Amino acid sequence: MAIDKKSTITIKDIAGELGISASTVSRALANSPLVKPETREAVQALAKKYNFQPNYTALSLRSNQTKTIGVIIPQIVHNFFSLVIRGIEDYSYSQGYSVIVSSSQEIYEREVMDSRTLLAGRVDGLLACISKETGNYDHLNEFVDRNIPLVLFDRAPEKVNATKVVIDDFQAAYLATSHLIEKECRKISYIGGPENLNIYKRRFEGFKAALKDQNVAFHPEIVVHCESEDFDECVDATAKVTGSTFDGLFATTDIMAIAAIKNIKKKGWKIPEDVAVIGFSNWPISSIYEPSVSTIDQPGYEMGRRSAQLLIEQIKDKENISIKKDILPVELIERESSKRA
């Protein structure tokens, strides 16, 4: 039976034209594995032909899925997290899932509120990166307790029993510090992020381990921990280390590296001749700043894509969720700030 394009198309109309049941059409539109692939393709092709938009609320009630995943990030206006979101969206949309993104703005209470809103909205799963204030994880453990798929990325607390997608922050910092030592730096400053966050703890440990392993002295007087990634605050914080002399500097973000370079220039020191500098994350500004900033390339897009992939795998097989820890590789990019002859 051909469908009259002038009328409002229903699931029953599609079922009638294909000679199948309405329930089969509903399952096919929800990408149910219970429907044969050729039938799913035929249903979806016909729906596209007639520009049919299914009632996802009704479908979700039947399938117990909303085809929506939630994402909580600390900041939206942040190059790394922008790349993460792109990776999440590209993979999720390719699998037929919608994405709801919320930003905690680095505020714990807001993170809790966002998680509860997403939970009440019946998202099929959650991707989350905690705020710098977060020290209690009850709101995340609620997803685990309810068997709602959860994947943590980047800032991924070990105390939550969920799949994690991260980099090896210890090894990345070790690599960056070793690079400065290879450039004959022997008194190296460290500019880190909030000490309560595990990623910065691990980077600080990697920094100190590289110094120790290569017999380079650790100087606590040229170590600064910034509580914010705000550029002006980083400038103020890094100004503290330029009261001493040093010949190398490792900053745990590119913004911190550039803030330090600004203060180093004020002192009249030359980069990289007097001080070699390396940052972390590979923000676009690091390649266009003068001098261009050596950095550790943190794979934001790949982290987002892989996190979404693991989450959707869990959503599709909730009865057999296995906890994984994916560690993505990083790359050192040498630029002018550390390129000594």
Topology, element by element:
Elements: H1 11-18, H2 22-29, H3 37-49, H4 56-63, E1 68-73, H5 79-94, E2 98-103, H6 108-120, E3 125-128, H7 138-145, E4 150-153, E5 163-167, H8 169-182, E6 188-192, H9 198-213, E7 223-225, H10 231-238, E8 248-251, H11 254-266, E9 276-278, H12 284-288, E10 295-297, H13 300-316, E11 325-328, E12 331-333
Summarize the structure.
The protein is of the alpha/beta class. The protein has 3 domains: 53 residues, lambda repressor-like DNA-binding domains (434 Repressor (Amino-terminal Domain)), CATH 1.10.260.40; 128 residues, Rossmann fold (3-Layer(aba) Sandwich); 137 residues, Response regulator (Rossmann fold, 3-Layer(aba) Sandwich). Helices cover 43% and strands 15% of the residues.
Characteristic terms for this protein:
single chain, 341 residues, alpha/beta, 434 Repressor (Amino-terminal Domain), Rossmann fold, 3 domains, six-stranded parallel β-sheet, four-stranded parallel β-sheet, 13 helices
Outline the structure in words.
The chain has 13 helices and 12 strands. It is an alpha/beta fold. It folds into 3 domains: 11-63, 434 Repressor (Amino-terminal Domain) (Orthogonal Bundle), CATH 1.10.260.40; 68-166 and 300-328, Rossmann fold (3-Layer(aba) Sandwich), CATH 3.40.50; 169-298 and 332-338, 3-Layer(aba) Sandwich (Rossmann fold). The strands form 3 sheets. It has a 6-stranded parallel β-sheet, with helices on both faces. It has a 4-stranded parallel β-sheet with strand order 7-6-8-9, sandwiched between helices. It has a two-stranded antiparallel ribbon with strand order 10-12. Helix 9 links the parallel strand 6 and strand 7 (223-225). Helix 5 packs parallel to helix 13 (300-316), helix 8 packs parallel to helix 9 (198-213) and helix 10 packs across helix 11. The N and C termini lie far apart (78 Å). The model has no long low-confidence stretch (mean pLDDT 90).
